[in-house]
Each structure stands twice: as C-alpha cells, then as structure tokens.
Amino acid sequence: xxxxxxxxxxxxxxxxxxxxxxxxxxxxxxxxxxxxxxxxxxxxxxxxxxxxxxxxxxxxxxxxxxxxxxxxxxxxxxxxxxxxxxxxxxxxxxxxxxxxxxxxxxxxxxxxxxxxxxxxxxxxxxxxxxxxxxxxxxxxxx
Length: 142
Description:
Helix content: 25-40%
C-alpha cells in the first residue's frame, strides 16, 4: 500500500485526485497507476484502470489470475467491475469512498451473486494517511 500511496502523491503533480493503485502477483508489482482522468481527458483513467492496463500489457493477457490490487481508496462501480473482468484475486483498499465507493459504501458490486468471478477484499491498510491525502486535496479545491 505504501507504493500505491506514493503513486497517489504523484497524481498531485498533475492536479489529479490523489488515488494510486498497484497490481501484485507473486510478490512482484506487475502494474501501477494513478488517476489520469483530467490530464488525459479520459473518464476511464482511474488509478485502478491504469494499473490494470499496465499489468495486462506486461502479462500479455487481460486476465490477471492470482493477482491482487492495492488501491488508496474504495473503487467505484466501473473499477470494481473491471477487477471482476480481470479476474483479480483480492482487492486491498485503504479508505472508504462514501459518495461513489462500490465495494462497501454505495453499492456492494463484488457481492453480486450473479458474477462469474469473486474478488475478495480487505479494507484499512494505511487508512488514515490515504484518507487525509484525499481530504487535503479537496479542502484545497474549496
């Protein structure tokens, strides 16, 4: 999670919402990313999607079995769905996102029984630091 946090801080340099993500398989980082929606003009360029694209490119496969993802904030609906499609094994996220988080906050996408793949999840790694980074970013914008 420390590396995901470092990437979130990197996003600040581009005036992006500070969210970072890494994909790990066999204790190796195989993908990484931070939010790039504003700088790329791409509404799908959330940290999770950027990290999944990076990992899939390196792995040579859009499916990433036995891979885990670490994200500094709870994924949205789009990103939670992408985790399922990529066959991510486990999601670790630092802090809830009460407005658009789709794992425990506004929806429970990963608990949908009709999905053909299950992504387990764990919350709370580096929660205080990641939550403060987001709070500080939005406080500065207001």
